[in-house]
Amino acid sequence: MKKNVGSTDQIIRLILAILVGILYYTDTISGTLGLVLVALSIVLVLTSVVNFCPLYLPFGINTRKKQVKHK
Fold first, then answer.
1. pLDDT in tens, 53-69
2. Lowest CB count within 10 Å: 11, 17, 47, 56, which one?
3. Do the Cβ atoms of 48 and 13 come closer than 8 Å?
4. Which pTM was predicted?
């Protein structure tokens, strides 16, 4: 599992997950839509923690910066 989620991508995912959590907690979103968004936010948190998004693989997306090897 090669890491393909960069730091900016991680921050955006976490902010979105927190926002959905707050909206669900305050009953701004509820019902089926709320549960689907909470499930999606859990996936966003997990992918940001492990730095890997399986949906990026088929499209060849990699938001992680290339690391320069020092000699």
1. 999 999 998 999 877 67
2. 11
3. yes
4. 0.84
48 contacts 14 by C-beta, under 8 angstroms: yes
The label of the residue with tokens 């499209």 reads 59
Q: Note the maximum CA span of the chain.
A: 56
The average confidence (pLDDT) of the chain is 92
SS3 label, residue 14: helix
Q: Which amino acid is at 15?
A: I
**Distance in angstroms between the alpha carbons of the first and the last residue of the chain:** 26
Look at 51 and 70; give whichever has higher pLDDT: 51
Dist CA 22 CA 24 (whole Å): 5
Residue type at position 69:
K
Q: Are 71 and 16 in contact (CB under 8 A)?
A: no
- Token digits of residue 22: 């707050």
